[in-house]
Structure formats: C-alpha cells, structure tokens
Design a protein that fits this description.
Layout: E1 5-10, E2 13-14, E3 19-25, E4 27-32, E5 38-44, E6 48-49, H1 51-56, E7 64-67, E8 71-77, H2 78-88, H3 90-145
Antiparallel strand pairs: 1-8, 2-7, 3-6, 3-8, 4-5, 4-7
Length: 146
C-alpha cells in the first residue's frame, strides 16, 4: 500500500469525505460537532475510518472524527483507495464493501440513538431548570409575604 500521508501526535478533528484513515496508534472518536463534540463511538488501532463514506455515501456526514494526542493515522486518497479495492484487490474489496455496509448501518443507528439520548437529557435539564426557577420564585414570594 502506498502511504500518501502520515499524521502523528495529533489532536484534531477531520470531516473529509475524500480520504481513508488507517489508525496506526491511538484511537479516533466519532463526535457530533453541533452537540458540543459529544462522542458516540470510538475506534482503535488497526481500524480504518472513512471507507464507508467513500464507498456508500456522497453526502456530508453529520459527525466528524477526532483524534487524541498521540494518535498516528495513515491516509489514502479516495482515488487510490478505490483503485486498490475495485481493481487490484477485488476479493478484499468485496469484504471491505460488505463491512462498509454494516458500518454505515451501525453509524446511522448509533447516530439516531445518540441524538435521541441528547434530546431526552436536554429535556430533563430544561425541566429541572424550570422546577428550580419555580422554587426560587416561590422562595422570593414567601420572603415578600414575611
């Protein structure tokens, strides 16, 4: 495999749909940038990310990947990745494609569950704040009466 780029000792977020990342060391988290970078999955050394997006999905993802300091990633361009799995190594490519289908399905399920969880938690916090505000208001009213 031709390594096009090696990233080392990172703490970064990335959302490119045109690269496949191979995790050489460390881990990568899938986070929701519009939800304070809430982590909804984590993958580790030896895994790859981005292949499902390249093979199955041309739309911009609703999440991005974040690394922690010390992570080392190898990248492969979309063009090179497709050439390798669709032309040179078709049998392995079939396996990667089938795994990408499972991965995309899993991401979509986890994304929906995570958004639901965040919304429920936010609703509970809003309700708790409302109750807290009502208690404070009653305390103020009681002070005025005394």
């Amino acid at each position: 495999m031709k390594v096009l780029y090696k990233k080392k000792n990172l703490n970064l977020a990335f959302n490119e749909n045109f690269l496949v990342y191979f995790i050489q060391n460390g881990s990568v988290e899938g986070v929701l940038p519009l939800r304070n970078n809430f982590t909804f999955f984590r993958i580790y050394q030896g895994d790859m990310v981005g292949e499902a997006d390249i093979l199955l999905n041309n739309e911009k993802r609703k999440y991005c990947f974040m690394t922690k300091k010390g992570a080392e990633l190898l990248t492969l361009s979309k063009k090179e990745f497709k050439r390798l799995i669709l032309v040179e190594y078709r049998e392995i490519g079939k396996q990667i494609f089938n795994q990408a289908l499972k991965t995309m399905k899993s991401f979509k399920i986890n994304y929906k569950k995570t958004i639901s969880h965040i919304e429920k938690s936010r609703d509970k916090l809003d309700l708790a704040k409302l109750k807290s505000d009502e208690i404070e208001k009653k305390k103020d009213e009681n002070k005025k009466v005394l």
